[in-house]
Hints:
InterPro entries: Pept_tRNA_hydro (IPR001328), Pept_tRNA_hydro_CS (IPR018171), Pept_tRNA_hydro_sf (IPR036416). By secondary structure, this protein is α/β, with parallel strands linked by helices.
Amino acid sequence: MLHAASAPAFSTTYPHCPRYIIDPSLGKRRFSVRCSVSETNNGRAKVEYTPWLIAGLGNPGSKYHGTRHNVGFEIIDSISQAEGIRMNVIQSKALIGIGSIGEVPVLLAKPQTYMNFSGESVGPLAAYYKVPLRHILLVYDEMSLPNGVLRLQHKGGHGHHNGLKDVMGHLDGSREFPRLAIGIGNPPGTMDVKAFLLQKFSSVERKQIDESLEQGVEAVRTLVLNGFNHHVTRFNTRQKYKYHKV
């Protein structure tokens, strides 16, 4: 069952964090986590985690399921399953799920606006939950990368990707937000780009994409828990050469 959202709140418990709650009393537009930790020399200490908005780009409806242009949706589905986050709320023209990765709160989103208007969901969600740009992770398909190859960046342009371009427009033109690109390869010969994007993968390509989804979930988890560090550089290097036999 799907639910419309107003000011969602939830709580859960962790072994090292007895009280963990998103507190709606802090304000209708604030998405915040307070975590009580063990006592220190100065008494009880409080830790506040900054939430992440992880949005996968794609087109809604069974017609587009499994197509190249919808791998962003597939990553969100994979994260949802791996982390036990139910996607059952409609808000800001998006299907969303609220949960956590480790002890960090996350908001998963699949815009239902169709690809070229993705910003109509991502922009309002980021504003409503007051998610900083550095914690808005966009996941999308990328023709400049070989099929199944991933690339994680802390910022960048839109590279003529209409969904990414629209999101940037709804974030005041900023490019200062992370993105995870999933390679889908280039159209063969003179094949029309639109037809290629709305085409399903071959059996070999599908296997590569399924492997990349697993790797993408792990990359997102590492990013959310550790931020951009040397692991990201190593991840991108491994991805770049993973189909090259030496």
